[in-house]
Amino acid sequence: MFVEEARVVRCHDGWVELESLQKSACDACSDKGCGNGVVAKAFGHRLHRMLLPDPGHLQQGQTVRVALPERTLITGAVLVYLSPIAGALFGAIIISMVQQLSGSHNEPMQIVAAVLGGVAGWLFARHRARQYERDPACQIKILQGDEVPLTLSSTQQDSDV
User: Fold this and answer.
1) d(CA 61, CA 10)
2) Which residues form the signal peptide (predicted)?
3) Residues 6+ apart with CB under 8 A from 28
């Protein structure tokens, strides 16, 4: 799980609104000249707000740790980046095969098919993202106290120490 600190902005009606500061990909590069650090400096720090179910003990101004399962991040990246590209390729390949069978060649039609395939891939990604949004296993979780989300087995942890 990816763990981040967030500040409680507001608690109301069984929900808690949290605010988290976006960081660069790694803290080391935000001060050096790598690409992520340069982009982070160019766009400044962004605050992300999220609304989560209140576990019942949080107060405004309190700092908490939230965890995002790796599955959610990886699935989201695949949906956002690969679905439109796959749709565009699929659209272009299908129209190219149809044109090849008919003996014609129309490049603008292939471009339009690729764009339509990309849009179809984006719509598919949006639909699937909404399904994952309702999946409890993919939700952001508020960690309780010293709770540490571990994904390694105990034998792997012992060998790393």
Assistant:
1) 8
2) none
3) none
Q: Please give the single-letter amino acid code of residue 111.
A: I
Q: Which of 126, 119, 54 is nearest to 84 (CA)?
A: 119
* Joined tokens for residue 161: 């120490």
Residue 68 is encoded by which pair of tokens?
């995002």
Burial 118-135 (b: 16+ CB within 10 A, else e): bebbbeebeeeeeeeeee
- Each residue of 44-59: pLDDT tens digit? 667 788 888 888 778 8
Q: Please give the single-letter amino acid code of residue 142.
A: I
State pLDDT tens for residues 101-146: 998 888 999 999 999 999 999 999 999 988 888 887 777 888 865 5
Q: Token match 């179910």: residue?
A: 53
pTM: 0.62
Residue 63's closest CA among 7, 10, 11, 16?
A: 7
> E strands of the chain, at which residues?
2-12, 15-21, 47-53, 63-68, 141-142
Please state the separation of Cα 13 from the chain's center in Å: 27
